[in-house]
Design a protein that fits this description.
This protein has 5 helices and 8 strands. By secondary structure, the protein is of the alpha+beta class. The chain is globular and about 35 Å long. The structure holds coenzyme A.
Length: about 190
């Protein structure tokens, strides 16, 4: 029998890390989100396009309003705020892919003005913690365009293993791209937990 008690994520916010607060997004975050979500360079290797203000507001009212994971297919997007300045610098996303397989997917984005300081790494580790420790997932993956070296480096930095390299298997923004799949199992998280 599975540990049913774990199969939902209803954590208290903010989730604290040494330098960051992870917390649900709100309409007050629209400007900070627009500052990087509207940038083509941020969207270069991901399957979403730059957003305008109306699209940011739509998402804040829709998918980004989720604060708990109660069933498979749901995604939780949390804002990444620097605790010392209360500045929103990015986001992390945890998708609960399958209840049966207890699997999930990780995503992250950081405002380039705040890149290179380890914030995305710290936030991604916290998201793994939510997935493994709070939701009780067995396996979390990240799918990364091979050209997105910053993202692949981050996945390795947090202890994810590269499991697959699918050559030219997806067309992204008109170009064939090679997909790297990184993964971590719950047992491996135990050795990588900060
Ligand atoms: C992927 C992405 C989040 C990586 O951003 P990043 O700035 O490299 O990641 P971090 O914020 O964790 O910073 C890590 C860098 O800061 C450095 N760093 C400084 N202080 C650090 C600390 N305390 N801890 C860890 N790293 C630190 C690291 O060495 C690293 O630099 P390096 O790559 O030159 O070695 C960013 O490129 C992005 O948002 N891209 C657009 C969206 C995207 O592609 N998302 C991924 C989809 S798969």
């Amino acid at each position: 029998m599975q540990r049913e008690r774990h199969l939902q994520l209803r954590t208290g916010y903010p989730v604290r890390t040494p330098r960051l607060l992870l917390r649900p997004l709100g309409f007050d975050d629209a400007d900070a989100l627009l500052a990087y979500r509207s940038r083509p360079d941020v969207c270069r290797y991901v399957p979403f396009d730059p957003l305008n203000r109306a699209a940011v507001i739509d998402r804040l009212a829709g998918p980004w309003a989720t604060t708990a994971l109660t069933d498979e297919g749901q995604a939780l997007t949390l804002g990444v705020e620097v605790a010392a300045t209360r500045t929103l610098v990015g986001e992390v996303m945890l998708l609960w892919s399958s209840r049966e397989h207890r699997s999930g997917q990780l995503g992250y984005a950081i405002n380039p003005d705040f890149a290179g300081r380890g914030y995305a790494t710290e936030a991604a580790r916290a998201a793994l913690g939510l997935g493994f420790d709070e939701l009780g997932l067995h396996r979390i993956t990240a799918s990364i365009d091979e050209r997105n070296t910053a993202s692949a480096n981050l996945a390795r930095r947090i202890g994810m293993r590269q499991e697959a390299r699918f050559v030219n298997n997806e067309k992204l923004k008109g170009e064939w791209c090679t997909e790297l799949v990184f993964a971590m199992l719950a047992g491996e998280w135990a050795g990588n937990r900060p």
